[in-house]
C-alpha cells in the first residue's frame, strides 16, 4: 500500500514535511489540493468524513499537509517516525 500526501504548495508546513518523508525514505504519491478543483474536492470530502480531522477542524486549520497511510492520517512530523 502506498501512502498519499495531501498538501498545498502555498502552505509553509509542506516543505519540512516533505523533507521528513524523504529522510525516512517513505514512498508516497502526492496530491496538491490547490492544483485543481478535483483535488480540492477529493481532500475536502476526505477531511469532512474522517474523525481524525476533528481536532484539526476544531483548531480552524485546513489539515494539510497530511499523509494518508491506509486508515491512518499523520499530521505531525514526529509521528512519521512511528511508521
Itemize the secondary structure elements and their pairings:
Layout: E1 3-7, H1 14-23, E2 28-32, H2 37-49, H3 54-58, E3 66-69, E4 72-74
Parallel strand pairs: 1-2
Antiparallel strand pairs: 1-3, 3-4
Describe this structure in words.
The protein has 83 residues and is an alpha+beta fold. The chain is 34% helix and 20% strand. The protein is built from 3 helices and 4 strands, in the order βαβααββ. It has helices at residues 14-23, 37-49, 54-58; strands at 3-7, 28-32, 66-69, 72-74. Strands 2-1-3-4 form a 4-stranded mixed sheet, with helices on one face. Strand 3 and strand 4 (72-74) form a beta hairpin. The longest helix is centred in the middle third of the chain and has 13 residues, at 37-49. It is globular and about 30 Å long.
Q: Would you tell me the overall average pLDDT? A: 93
Order of helices and strands: EHEHHEE
**Structural class, from secondary structure content?**
alpha+beta
Shape: globular
> Which ranges are low-confidence, i.e. pLDDT below 50, for 5 or more consecutive residues?
none
Distance between the ends: 13 Å
Strand percentage lies at 15-25%
Number of strands: 4
- Identify the strand order in the major beta sheet: 2-1-3-4
The major β-sheet equals:
4 strands, mixed
Radius of gyration: 12 Å
The helix content, as a percent range, equals: 25-40%
Amino acid at each position: 500500500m502506498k501512502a498519499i500526501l495531501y498538501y498545498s504548495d502555498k502552505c509553509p508546513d509542506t516543505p519540512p514535511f516533505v523533507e521528513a518523508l524523504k529522510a525516512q525514505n517513505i514512498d508516497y504519491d502526492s496530491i496538491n489540493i490547490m492544483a485543481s478543483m478535483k483535488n480540492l474536492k477529493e481532500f475536502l470530502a476526505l477531511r469532512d468524513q474522517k474523525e481524525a480531522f476533528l481536532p484539526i477542524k476544531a483548531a480552524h486549520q485546513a489539515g494539510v499537509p497530511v499523509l494518508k497511510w491506509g486508515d491512518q492520517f499523520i499530521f505531525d512530523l514526529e509521528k512519521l517516525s512511528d511508521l
